[in-house]
Amino acid sequence: MNALERDFFTDPELIRDPVPYYRALGEVGPVFREPHHGVFLISGIQEILDVYADHATFSAVIAPLGPFVQLPEPAEGETVADVVANRSDEIPVSGQLFTLDPPKHTRHRALLTKLFTPNRLKENEEFMWTLAERLIDEFADRGEVELCRGYAGPFTLLVIADLLGVPREHHERFRGWLQGGRTPVAGDTSGMAGGDQVFANLHPYFTQYIEDRRAAPRDDVLTHLAQVRFPDGALPEVNDVVRIAATLFAAGQETTARLISAGMRVLAEQPSLADELRATPEAIPNFIEECLRLESPIKGAFRLALRDTRIAGVDVPMGSIVMAMNGASSRDSRVFEDAHRFDAKRKNTRRHIAFGHGEHFCPGASLARTEARISIERLLARLDEVRLVDPSALSYTPSFILRGLNDLPLHFRRRS
Ligand code: HEM
């Protein structure tokens, strides 16, 4: 069967390995209307940048769920743009930062940007170094670890907890929620529609933190979070602030965990590259960019066409669903030479768009890069001869949005 005849959103074979589909997209050109759901798949870097930048034409209201969002039917005389502007409360998952359009998006995004102060990021980075050592200490003597649960999951969760100022004495409780894993939600193949234990649990905690700090401010990060204001000076509802915290966990934890495990899988498969990076840790950031390019933890994001438009000469009617295929675009041969080859020294690898572009460009990009750099550096420094326990038994997240490993059993020799 030609790869493009498969259903990109549900075919289990493509969950395990989407590359044949990405390759086939590259052959048909930057725009392809897939036959199962009628979604326009955009796989060229420039075409995606154009879509991401045109917020007036392409709404993010369906960003994480695309064709699985039931949009309200426009009434007589109503356009799709009217529905998005006036009836977004009838659209599932709308109201989250990543589904808002300007100007509402701009206002809410400003709240989040205020949390990423240079000082907070510096303290957070110091926490990352300590946390990495602490987590590695837990398994270093055993000679083997399932890296997703033993390191990548708790590391990325606790880094965000620390960024937001969750008291240290609550960290173990937050970590415990990860063990519960995902509670499957009927019909949720995206992996992002909720139902996750962590998010259900953190809501009451953050509500309490914000209410407490508003009633009795202290000199701590949670007080800063509780007092953050919109650009016009208005104080957000407690629920809006809780939602920021939940969004950071939702968008930043599983993605970065998958980047770390993807990097360690590559190093377990290429021991000479692992030795090279141990000897020259300054080459780790470029290695991470190449992991982002070829193993983009977000496969893509959806947009809704608010008017009739054209992308690369292809007509895209009003109401169409478009998917910016960040993962596939990393193989755009117009931009990357020998695009399918993993090259840790690739010079232009940072031209990948794994973090998106435009108003919704990932606000956690630099945080994720720092987390991955510190993790890879410390894991390589502490563990030698890292190998896959069973190369044939790797399992991937069943999601059309997230790309990455569920389990990464490794064995190794302790170095120090
Ligand atoms: C390797 C890790 C990560 C990848 C690949 C990634 C990728 C992305 C992408 C592609 C988008 C844009 C989605 C769209 O345009 O619809 C996005 C948005 C977002 N990311 Fe990340 N992300 C990562 C890590 C993080 C981290 C660590 C955080 C924060 C702790 C974070 C927070 C967010 C938020 C809040 C948004 C929504 C921004 C908005 O809509 O304005 N991400 N991310």
What can you see in these coordinates?
The chain has helices at 12-16, 19-28, 45-53, 80-86, 104-113, 118-139, 147-164, 171-180, 197-215, 221-227, 238-269, 271-279, 284-294, 326-329, 365-382; strands spanning 31-33, 40-42, 58-59, 144-146, 301-305, 309-311, 314-316, 321-324, 383-388, 395-396, 405-407, 409-414. The chain is of the alpha+beta class and 416 residues long. The model is unreliable at 181-195 (pLDDT under 50). Bound molecules: protoporphyrin IX containing FE. Protoporphyrin IX containing FE binds at residues 60, 63, 97-98, 109, 160, 247-248, 251-252, 255-256, 259, 297-298, 301, 326, 354-356, 360, 362-364, 367-368.
Provide the succession of SSEs: HHEEHEHHHEHHHHHHHEEEEHHEEEE
> End-to-end span in angstroms?
50 Å
User: Which residue ranges are poorly predicted, with pLDDT under 50 across at least 5 consecutive positions?
Assistant: 181-195
Global morphology = globular
Major beta sheet summary:
5 strands, mixed
Please give the number of β-strands: 12
- Helical segment count: 15
Radius of gyration (Å): 21 Å
**Amount of helix:** 40-55%
Structural class by sheet pairing and helices: alpha+beta
Strand order in space, largest sheet: 1-2-8-5-3
What value does the average pLDDT take?
Answer: 92
Ligands present: protoporphyrin IX containing FE
Beta-strand percentage range: 5-15%
